[in-house]
Design goal:
2 domains, alpha/beta, Rossmann fold
Length: about 260
């Protein structure tokens, strides 16, 4: 089953001849970039967006994985803080974000004579309505993992088979998702969220989110073994001190 999907994925990419891959450094886009590089060689380009909504460590990881894959890699800057539709943080935030990204990637593809822009969405992402998916469709972006019927489990299985070093990487979302809907997104809030999460992750905490509620920092972990929760409790004094130094008055933990 996986081999059949893999061959279909290779065929889809081959048919497009010259592709630009929207590359975050996550498992989905890494697999897509890897297969594109293997199939098309120099006719594949990975492009990563550098912005305030991206954790700093994610950019480092994207550079590392692109080098590992051997794909040409371009990093471009977007200042989402200039997009008022995005910063007002409505239910369409992801739509405006994805729309701006894909328009820029299409411009780069046109300038560099790449035929299409590929996105790493997988079949499981299509099971619910997502504003970002609507933007992809409007901009004519191709999602080969969807077309080849790759679900999340398939992506990880093939990533392991192809020896991608980030095959077990946990999924992540942009920092803007940590701010409650309807509250304005600002550079200061994004920076302190990033610093808070980066500090807590030093304790080997997995699947972490620090929700920013103004004076309150609400720490969330989704670890079935409860190991991450215990790590936070064991280091609560250090974590509380650090987060208060970032401007939070209160630090809470979801149990």
């Amino acid at each position: 089953m996986l081999d059949r999907k893999y061959k279909k994925l290779q065929g889809i990419i081959k048919d497009n001849r010259c592709v630009l891959v929207a590359f975050s450094g996550g498992v989905d886009s890494s697999l897509l970039a890897k297969v594109a590089r293997d199939v098309l060689g120099e006719n594949a380009l990975a492009v990563t967006i550098n912005s305030e909504i991206m954790p700093r460590n994610e950019l480092k990881e994207a550079k590392k994985i692109a080098k590992e894959i051997g794909i040409k890699h371009l990093i471009v800057k977007i200042d989402f803080m200039k997009n008022r539709d995005f910063t007002k943080n409505s239910s369409l935030r992801c739509y405006y974000c994805k729309k701006e990204i894909m328009k820029l990637l299409k411009e780069i593809a046109k300038e560099r004579r790449f035929n299409v822009v590929l996105d790493g969405s997988n079949a499981d992402d299509m099971k619910e309505e997502r504003p970002g998916v609507k933007a992809l469709k409007e901009e004519g972006i191709i999602s080969p993992l969807v077309d080849a019927d790759f679900g999340k489990d398939d992506v990880r299985k093939l990533a392991r088979k192809l020896n991608l070093s980030n095959s077990e990487k946990e999924s992540n979302t942009c920092l803007a998702t940590r701010i409650p809907r309807g509250e304005r997104i600002t550079p200061d809030r994004l920076r302190r969220i990033d610093k808070a999460e980066e500090f807590i992750k030093r304790f080997k905490v997995r699947n972490l989110r620090v929700r920013d509620h103004g004076d309150f920092a609400r720490i969330e972990v989704s670890d079935d073994s409860d190991k991450s929760t215990q790590i936070i409790l064991d280091n609560k004094k250090l974590i509380t001190r650090k987060l208060k130094s970032l401007g939070y008055k209160y630090v809470t933990l979801n149990l």
